[in-house]
What does this fold into?
Amino acid sequence: MTSKERILGILNREKVDRIPVDLWHTDEVLQSLKDHTGLKDKLAIYRKLGVDRILWAETSYLGETRPPEGADEVTDHWGCRRRTVQAGAAEYDEFVDYPLAGYDSPDSLDDYPWWPDVDQYDYQKMAAHVVDNGDEFATFGPWISFFEVYCWMRGLENAMMDLALTPDLVQAALDRIEDHQTQMVRRFLKACPEKVDMALVSDDMGGQKSLLMSIRHWKEFIGPRLKRWCDLFHDHGIKVFYHSDGSIDALIPHLIEAGIDILNPIQHVCPGMDRGHLKGTSGDRLIFHGGVDNQSALPFGSPEDVRVETRECLRTLGDRGGYICCSCHNVQAGTPVENILAMIETVHREGNRWL
It folds into this structure.
């Protein structure tokens, strides 16, 4: 089977030759894989290693953005300034400020000058990611989010307090964020001659120990919006891939009710996220993606530790299918290549054992 056939087979709960293995990684890890394989092209690396990669339609914005204020800064299309910082072997972009931090009412949002313009995306370039690779690899549409974008623009502390103190401001801002991305997605789908396989919705709702917001607040601010997006994508025959880190067990029934199809990244070291429990309670309604521990086993364990960890993911999450094996978020800088290979090779050898 091709990589795409294998992924689509899992999504459609059809018979496949083995469970697929995806690979999410930082730029530093990609460089380590280039050094290991001697290849420069990442798709060639995925082919050589036998990775069933799901490719993203990267967002390309051509409009005017808020000017950066330092030579080492970049600004995104929401007006958020970021600066690259060094953290050990890794580089990360951190927020310099939060452009909506000084806005305190729904009416004040009219004065924000950097709302993105839906006409200013390069939809043809975005579609080319799908057209050029969609025969071989499964594909995502452009990354979209509700509350993560709001947190970028307001700052996490403000955003969390806003839920209780200024709910009208949250609703008004989320209305704008939802409407803009809905228009962008509709235009992307119209411009793309080939159907993407999945829509990637990212909205982190879990911390290491519990939800970041109450179920009541999620239903008030997020749930109806997520359902509208799920309905939109399902109307186009596209499955919804939902990303949230952390402990989100209490939210999963509501995510299912909203209409998500695939849940990522299954951070099973968090309370309530036991792999066997999730499979038993939700495995008939969800496809799982992720699972391989990225806080201990992959970065700090031995190859044998990674094989044991991967095998347990296959045994639990992969029981009778419905699973795409991957790390539970990006493999981080400094992770030994031998551990990455151990995950991939274990799936290759044993990925049909529990089907």
User: Anything to note?
Assistant: The first strand starts at residue 54 and ends at 55.
